[in-house]
Write a structure and sequence with these properties.
Blueprint: H1 14-39, E1 45-47, E2 56-58, H2 61-73, H3 76-79, H4 86-123, H5 127-150, H6 153-162
Antiparallel strand pairs: 1-2
C-alpha cells in the first residue's frame, strides 16, 4: 500500500482523530528515542492531550526535568543560539533566495554569451570586427579607470563630451 499526501486539516470524526493522535504520538516518541539512541543527545518530549488528564513525558518525568534543567543552566547566548522569530526566518530565506538569483543570473549570462559566440561563428560574421569592438570597449574602460584613479577635471570633461 502506497502512502498518499494527506491534507493537514482538523479531523472532524472524534474516533478517527483519537486514533490518528495515538499513531502520531507513538511515531513522535519513537523519533525522540531514535535521536537519543543514535546520537546520544539528551532529548525529551512532553505531550499534552485532551484524552489524558496528565501530560505524557518521554523518557520520563525525571528525565524531562533533567533535560529542562540542563537547558536552563546554559548561558543565555547558547539558549538563543538557533532561535529565530518569523521576521528573521523570512529575512534569511529572502537573503538565500537573492544569492541563488544572482548565481542563476550569472549562469544565464555565461550561457547567453556562449550562445552568442557560437552564433557569430555559424553565421560567418567576421571575427576581426568583433575583436575590434571588444578592443574599443576595453580601451574606453581603461580610460575611465585612469580618470577615476587620479585624472584631472579636464580629462573628465573630455570623456563626458566624447561619450566614452
Amino acid at each position: 500500500m502506497t502512502r498518499r499526501k494527506m491534507k493537514l486539516t482538523f479531523i472532524v470524526n472524534n474516533s478517527s482523530r483519537k486514533t490518528t493522535y495515538k499513531k502520531r504520538k507513538r511515531g513522535l516518541l519513537k523519533k525522540a528515542h531514535e535521536i537519543f539512541t543514535l546520537s546520544e543527545i539528551n532529548a525529551g518530549a512532553i505531550i499534552y492531550s485532551p484524552y489524558d488528564p496528565t501530560p505524557e513525558a518521554w523518557p520520563s518525568v525525571e528525565g524531562m526535568n533533567q533535560v529542562i534543567t540542563t537547558f536552563r543552566n546554559l548561558p543565555e547566548i547558547d539558549q538563543q543560539n538557533n532561535v529565530v522569530n518569523q521576521q528573521e526566518f523570512v529575512q534569511q530565506r529572502i537573503t538565500k533566495a537573492d544569492k541563488l538569483l544572482l548565481k542563476k543570473k550569472k549562469d544565464n549570462m555565461e550561457v547567453n554569451l556562449t550562445e552568442d559566440m557560437y552564433l557569430f561563428l555559424r553565421i560567418g560574421q567576421d571575427l576581426n570586427d568583433l575583436g575590434y569592438l571588444v578592443d574599443q570597449y576595453l580601451n574606453s574602460l581603461n580610460r575611465r579607470i585612469q580618470i577615476l584613479e587620479g585624472g584631472s577635471d579636464v580629462e573628465i570633461c573630455e570623456s563626458l563630451q566624447t561619450g566614452n
